[in-house]
Design brief:
The structure holds two protein chains of two kinds. Chain A is mostly helical. Among the domains of chain A are: about 100 residues, Orthogonal Bundle (Rna Polymerase Sigma Factor, Chain: A), CATH 1.10.1740; about 90 residues, no CATH class; about 90 residues, Serine Threonine Protein Phosphatase 5, Tetratricopeptide repeat, CATH 1.25.40. Helices cover about 70% and strands about 0% of the residues of chain A. In chain A, helix 1 crosses helix 3, helix 9 runs parallel beside helix 11 and helix 15 runs parallel beside helix 18. Chain A is elongated, with a radius of gyration of 25 Å. Chain B has one domain: Alpha-Beta Plaits. Chain B is built from five helices and six strands; from the N terminus they run αβααββββααβ. The longest helix of chain B is centred in the middle third of the chain and has 17 residues. Chain B is of the alpha+beta class. In chain B, strand 3 and strand 4 form a beta hairpin. In chain B, strands 2-5-1-6 form a four-stranded antiparallel beta sheet. The two termini of chain B are about 30 Å apart. The chains are: A mainly alpha, B alpha+beta. Chains A and B meet through helix 19 and helix 20 of A and helix 3, helix 4 and helix 5 of B.
């Protein structure tokens, strides 16, 4: 290979990387900026992806512009104007807006402010299918393709594409405005955004938590978006509660696997493996949330995580305190996870029969496929010295787990019970 | 594959709880040769079979399984083809591939999402490949 060729390849790579960086960092801002004026998400996304393709052709030759975002925005606007011409919508208010914007030379200073918050409100509008909300936010805010999002949510790529297209069609057909909702709807709409953020967070990092990869997929981007929400609605305590919750889980991502890649449950994690700076940040968010004196689901969940960090100060986990928090959580936001975790607290404080009775109230139709239920039940039965029943429960927990490290951990627990029954006392 | 763990009672339970509008899928399990070797390896066979037994038990008790089988390794296969009126019988598998068919499960679930979830729980999802395919409607 000649030096000339090598440097060509290198500049091509530089241009490609610059475009990719812009895609990741600015995609959502550009989509939000354009779609606050244009309700047609299809048109906006098409225009932007064409602008990106164009950039990848031109930049390697002419160099990356001073402000790549502004360049892309201008190119996307041109595409939108073409689109409106073709659709014979040129007289529409929106087309007027697009064409009124300065189309001076690419590289104009960027007038754009971050309006991703409004985009999130659109993506979580009550008339959008709840299952599509989190995926839609990931796509419109970061340009993740349907296939990546599908893997994150364990859905087939074709199904995910359909869900995304259906959601965007609804936004267009119902003319859902990309603007702030009326004040009366405010608290409810904020909760929809938070729920979608949390769904995206758990899906985005659940299978990556503790893995060696520094880049843990969409989880990092979701944290970015939660910060956007914090800026947009700083007076809503649940927003800070969610941020705290997410930071607590993030702070432990190194600790939930040991050096051999084996799963380590929370109560056996090494405090030295926790990220104390992140925990500190989480505590500050939780304090800020608490200062409003309006409790809620995410604040309680964050408080539960906070209680687990007492070991940082050398104070053993207060399981009775946790039990109390779970009781409160189940009152305001019952969930399968909280139900099972509460039973696990009963086990920790030694109330074995109470734990078993509590588990028996678990909804029978969900039980068959809910792995944490069987893992907890197995641990309770083992402590109650019922090895045969415990072994059955361990089997079901192993069979239902998807994470191979969790499968292996549960198998180890079952083996331990069989080899030295007293060790689990 | 630990399909033998699934008892007739479990299949009967399934029949009683059979739901309307269920979709039929095959969970087709491909394993690497090193994975298949664990079946008889003194060091690994206990955990290998335990994982499959646990999965078979979970899928059986959930009432979604309608059938399935584990397969012996391809080295025990015999293939037969007719070329015109000539029979060609060979020892060994039809094709040499890296991922070997280890067995399959037949399930009835409400939709593809649920089928994928069962696929992800399958031990081979972490070590080989698990393919989910709709059954041909007959």
């Amino acid at each position: 290979m000649s030096t000339e060729q090598a440097s060509d390849d290198k500049s091509l790579e530089v241009a490609r990387l610059a475009a990719e960086r812009v895609a990741r960092e600015s995609y959502g801002r550009l989509v939000a900026y354009l779609s606050t004026r244009c309700r047609d998400l299809f048109a906006v996304e098409d225009a932007l992806s064409e602008a990106f393709a164009q950039a990848l052709e031109i930049w390697p030759q002419k160099g990356v512009p001073q402000s790549p975002e502004a360049w892309l925005l201008t190119a996307a606007r041109r595409r939108l104007i073409d689109y409106f011409r073709k659709q014979q919508l040129f007289e529409s208010e929106l087309a007027q807006w697009v064409s009124r914007q300065s189309l001076s030379e690419p590289g104009e200073p960027l007038p754009m402010k971050d309006e991703r918050w409004k985009l999130m409100l659109v993506c979580t509008h009550p008339s959008i299918d709840a299952a599509a909300r989190a995926p839609l936010i990931l796509q419109t805010s970061f340009g993740f393709d349907a296939a990546t999002i599908a893997s994150t949510f364990l859905v087939s790529p074709a199904t995910m594409s359909q869900r995304l297209v259906r959601a965007k069609t609804r936004i267009r057909d119902l003319q859902i405005p990309v603007e702030l909702p009326p004040e009366g709807e405010w608290p409810e709409r904020v909760m929809f955004v938070l729920d979608a953020m949390y769904a995206a967070w758990t899906a985005g990092c659940s299978d990556r938590l503790g893995s060696e990869a520094i880049d843990w997929g969409p989880a990092h981007e979701v944290l970015q978006l939660i910060e956007v929400v914090c800026e947009a609605v700083p007076d809503e305590p649940e927003v800070w509660g969610l941020k705290a919750l997410v930071l607590y889980t993030a702070s432990r991502r190194q600790a939930c696997r040991d050096e051999q890649g084996r799963y380590v449950p929370l109560d056996r994690q090494l405090v030295s493996e926790w990220d104390l700076t992140t925990i500190q940040e989480a505590e500050e968010c939780l304090l800020r949330a608490a200062s409003f004196q309006r409790t809620g689901r995410y604040q309680l969940e964050a408080a539960i995580q906070s209680a687990h960090t007492s070991r940082v100060a050398g104070i053993p986990t207060n399981w009775r305190g946790l039990l109390n928090l779970y009781d409160q959580l189940l009152r305001i936001a019952p969930s399968y996870g909280a139900f099972v975790s509460r039973a696990a607290c009963l086990l920790q404080v030694g109330l074995l029969h109470e734990a078993l009775v509590a588990l028996e109230e678990f909804p029978a139709d969900r039980m068959q496929t809910y792995q944490p239920y069987w893992a907890t039940k197995a641990a309770v039965l083992a402590r109650l010295n019922q090895p045969a029943a415990a072994s059955d429960a361990y089997d079901l927990a192993i069979g239902l787990a998807t994470d191979p490290a969790v499968k292996e951990y549960l198998y180890g627990q079952a083996m331990l019970m069989k080899s030295e029954p007293e060790s689990l006392e | 594959m630990g399909l033998a763990v699934l008892s007739v009672t479990q299949i009967l339970i399934y029949c009683r709880t059979k739901k309307v509008n269920a979709m039929k899928y095959a969970i087709i399990v491909y394993e690497s040769s090193s994975e298949l070797a664990k079946r008889t390896s003194p060091e690994h066979q206990a955990s290998y079979w335990a994982a499959w037994a646990a999965y078979s038990k979970a899928i059986g008790e959930a009432g979604v399984m309608t059938g399935g089988a584990g397969l012996e390794p391809p080295s025990l296969a015999t293939t037969v083809r007719m070329k015109g009126d000539k029979r060609i019988v060979q020892d060994g598998p039809f094709a040499d591939t890296k991922e070997l068919l280890g067995g399959f499960f037949l399930i009835e679930v409400p939709d593809l999402d649920a089928a994928l979830e069962w696929g992800a729980r399958c031990p081979a999802a972490a070590t080989g490949t698990v393919e989910i395919r709709p059954l041909l409607q007959m």
